[in-house]
Amino acid sequence: QATYTSGQPTSGAMGASHAVELIAEHASQSQPGMQSIISGPLDELDPPVTPEEAFEECLALLKYPLDSASESLLKELSLKETDDCNFTLKVILDGKKLDSYGYGKGDGTDRVRNWKKVSADRSKLRITCVDYVDEGKMGAWVTDAKEEPITQCVVNMLKDPGQIEFCLDRKGQRRADPKFRDGLYAWSDAIIGSVQAQKRAKVKVQPDAPSIQEKGLKSMVSEPMDEHVSYDNFFPQLVKAVKTLISGVPKISVEEVSDEELRGTAVDEKGETTTHAVKFSQSAGTLCWTITAGDKVMSQMHRVVHRDPLVMEAWDIGPDGARSCGISKAKQMQKNINDAIEKANIGLAEGSQMATFDGADDARAEARGDMLVCSQVLSAPSL
Q1: What integer pLDDT is reported at residue 350 of this predicted model?
Q2: Is 0.90 surpassed by the pTM of this model?
Q3: Cα 84 to chain center, whole Å?
């Protein structure tokens, strides 16, 4: 057995790397005499991103702004489209589920996380969003939300060079200062990161696909990986990644109970205990990570690696027992799988033990989100 205690993970806005730099208080190129927040050149990224690609991804994210954690809390997503470029979106989180995590009002009141009217002009690569709830304050309780404009943001995809420009007005006042710039990083990272991930991915993951392991249910299911990695190299990489994720949880003590089981215990400043229990079997290709707060199971993450063909299947279970395997979770799973393939092959080529994810900060963020899911949900990327 081995026991160790982690230090604080390296994350947060200060010193964090981003998909592309955002510059605050920049002279607007689309609105002369005004200031805006503008990105660095998109064509200098690796791989580069075109303004057209950024436009389409931004539009797609506005129609489905949920991260992997908020999918677990979703009660209703209402998308009313006039056409492909003009729509109103309203996202409501389930009040009972929020209560179960300790972040609700205690009476089952739902929360409006997003409520916006969007109009886009594909010929001008311009998107205008009007928000009716304050996403900076994590939306509003359904009893308080009103269809009254709070914020307007015009997003311009510029050319020569390709850049993203945000023209943000809050309650009639232009905001281009560093505080709002920092808030927009989550959005620009999501746009650029998603485009680049699709370009880099050797293996894609399908959300809400028919389960292989549990017939009649839904899972996230990858494409076959046989051409890219072997089972014997891939499965141990998943286990190593989980150990890295758990060790990144603040103030956690981790014990390797056996060759196929580990347990982590974290006590926060309020004295509340969160337990991470992981059981896995390389012979069976299964891994289950259960997170418990006190005596309440908060989440279970199931991963199954099938051998013929070599396919990874995954699903999560929330505190209410609901199964989750939606679009945002599938995107994160796709990233993790491709990172694992890359590192597994690097380790094989070097004849050394396999390294952990390059995207450790993103992965740690997801792990903390599953432990404190509402903290992540209520600060999800939004525009």
Answers
A1: 56
A2: no
A3: 24
